[in-house]
Structure prediction request, 94 residues.
Amino acid sequence: MPDFEYQKDLSCWFGLSYASWLTLPRVLMEAMPPDWQERMAVLLNEYDDAYPNQPDIGTRVQIVVDGKLVKCPSWLLNYRHPDKLEISKLKEAQ
Prediction:
């Protein structure tokens, strides 16, 4: 088994699964500091530039809890009016 540097190896973000996609909620990304958002935008543009002929396909996200489909919490979808209390709960140490 290869050694991974969890802060640097992208494959670690996929965990020990066979996941083919990585999805991140917009509301949480836009709650990050402006410098983080700028770096992320630069990386996403770099990604697009590297693959100018991407397939014309879309994706859908399904929310699951314990393997069962559930409705997405409304606060997670509402990026125009972010629920700062809910977002701050995610930042608290357990």
Observations:
- The two ends are 30 Å apart (CA to CA).
- The chain has one domain: 10-91.
- The mean pLDDT is 91.
